[in-house]
Write a structure and sequence with these properties.
Layout (H helix, E strand, L loop, with lengths): L10 E4 L9 E3 L3 E5 L15 H19 L4 E2 L2 E2 L1 E4 L4 E4 L2 E3 L4 H22 L2 H5 L2 H17 L2 H9 L4 H26 L5 H9 L5 H21 L1 H7 L2 H4 L10 E4 L1 H4 L24 H4 L20 H13 L6 E4 L1 H6 L3 H8 L2 H22 L4 E7 L6 E3 L3 E12 L5 E8 L5 E2 L4 E4 L4 E10 L7 E11 L5 E10 L2
Parallel strand pairs: 1-3
Antiparallel strand pairs: 2-3, 4-5, 6-7, 7-8, 9-10, 11-13, 12-13, 13-17, 14-16, 14-18, 15-17, 18-19
């Protein structure tokens, strides 16, 4: 190798062996530079407190709803079922068709506005308490603690050699993880295929390949995300972590460390006077880092990895109680409140700012419109198309006839009778059966022969209206069509 000038050094990228490994010199001229930082395993410490209790409340609520709804019956069917094969969605007493796509749009608008509102008020509230990734990670961590012990025991066991106890404990952990993950995948598919039907075919080993694929797909996704990837999903895969800053401001409630009160940090005796030692309230125990599910240090300020779970606030309050200091060194607050020492009342007055009130007003209006629309929704639907196999023609008696096909959909769960009438041209009559009976949640294509007297209309196309009236429930629909008079 020829000698090179210092300014011509060659840089060789390498994969690092440790998280904080410095650049390594290779020979006299080459410098090896790490392209990324190796990830260290995070062992979250268990914590109890106000926010931890609320997190477990949300775990119970979300999972009781998720696992329980597919088993709930409504009449003679599953209460919540998205039947893609029949193209019908059942939500308790509501039956929706693909033509009701507007309601899905409204639901997405409500979800987006809710996300904006909650983020403006309290940051990543969804992430810390109700996000499926957080909920299942919390459940998997509990199973890990149950089988392998607390944080210190897990770290000690992972660092030690493999033995019979280690194999047994890890095997039992993964067995529990796989059981919960498989049941999660099975339940998820149960929202699209009737759960009781799927359970019976599973017990007789008659599940289709498609059903089996989706059960295992969602099961292994849960197993991988909650058991192994954990904080990596929140930090690198979830887009919300990246664009949340656009929805934050200095009056947004976040998990905040009171730097003015806590610094300078340092260890001290419980009986020591921190003022005499020129120390703040933080005793530098690092417990706030140990309980963080994403492994960050909240004392370094707000970071995009923070999911706002409040675990650091719980453990810090416990430490403050033990050393006899006031609580709230780490707490839910706003940047302005911490900087200007606002009281709780002052903080909340600024939290309920115009931006939040506007979001709330828009969200309330959309929800109200959605509820009113569903309440006044006509419980049947009609589509009208011309029968392409039969053109306009002259029939017996010198009349002009057009044939239409009406798709009538009964969106109720009881048998309904409908009457079809037509208007738009003088003397227009329906020559086919104008009464239709449909059983619950069924649809049918009904051929309708419409005739007019010869000379009642000029040659060409003429707009007409079909009126479909329900006989057993209130409701009437009018659909446009075109009647063709041949030249």
């Amino acid at each position: 190798m020829q000698d090179k000038a210092p300014s011509e050094k060659k840089v060789i990228p390498i994969v690092p062996q440790a998280a904080a490994e410095p650049p390594v010199a290779a020979g006299d001229d080459d410098v090896m530079v790490s392209l990324y930082q190796a990830q260290k395993t995070i062992y979250p410490r268990s914590v109890s407190g106000f926010f931890s209790n609320w997190r477990w409340v949300m775990v119970w609520i979300t999972q009781l709803v998720f696992y329980g709804l597919p088993w709930l019956e409504w009449g003679q069917r599953q209460a919540v079922l998205f039947d893609l094969g029949a193209r019908r969605f059942y939500i308790f007493g509501l039956v929706l068709y693909p033509q009701d796509f507007i309601y899905l749009t409204g639901l997405l608008v409500i979800s987006a506005l809710s996300l904006f509102l909650f983020t403006a008020v309290a940051g990543r509230l969804w992430c810390g308490y109700a996000c499926p990734q957080t909920v299942y990670t919390e459940m998997f961590l509990w199973m890990e603690k149950l089988t392998e012990g607390d944080r210190a025991a897990r770290m000690r066991r992972d660092a030690g050699p493999w033995n019979a106890e280690k194999i047994a404990r890890k095997s039992s952990k993964h067995f529990l993880w796989l059981a919960v993950a498989f049941w999660t995948g099975f339940t998820f598919v149960g929202y699209f295929i009737p759960m009781r039907q799927m359970s019976s075919v599973f017990m007789t080993d008659q599940m289709s390949a498609l059903e089996t694929f989706w059960v295992f797909f969602y099961g292994f996704a849960t197993y991988g995300n909650a058991g192994f990837m954990r904080e990596q999903v929140c930090k690198y895969m979830c887009p919300y972590a990246r664009f949340q800053s656009a929805m934050f401001d200095k009056d947004t409630l976040i998990v905040a460390y009171d730097k003015e009160r806590g610094e300078p940090r340092g260890a001290r005796s419980k009986k020591a006077d921190p003022t005499a030692l020129n120390l703040g309230a933080c005793i530098d125990c690092s417990l706030c880092v140990q309980v963080c599910p994403t492994g960050i240090d909240i004392r370094n300020g707000l970071q995009y990895e923070c999911i706002g779970c409040g675990a650091c606030a719980d453990v810090c309050d416990t430490v403050m109680d033990k050393v006899g200091y006031p609580r709230g060194l780490v707490k839910y607050s706003t940047e302005n409140a911490v900087a200007q020492h606002w009281t709780r009342a002052q903080t909340w007055r600024h939290v309920l700012r115009p931006r939040v009130l506007i979001y709330s007003a828009i969200l309330g209006s959309v929800v109200l419109a959605m509820v009113v629309s569903l309440a006044t929704r006509i419980p049947f639907k009609v589509d009208v198309v011309r029968d392409r196999g039969v053109l306009a023609r002259e029939v017996e008696g010198g009349k002009i006839e057009n044939v239409f096909r009406l798709q009538v959909m009964n969106a109720t769960e009881s048998t309904q009778r409908f009457r079809i009438t037509v208007q738009g041209i003088p003397g227009m009559v329906i020559m086919s059966d104008a009464d239709v009976t449909l059983e619950s949640t069924l649809s049918r294509w009904v051929p309708v022969n419409v005739q007019i007297p010869f000379g009642a209309a000029e040659p060409g196309s003429h707009p007409i209206h079909f009126e479909i009236t329900a006989q057993d429930v209130p409701g009437k629909l009018s659909e446009k069509a075109v009647f063709i008079v041949p030249r």
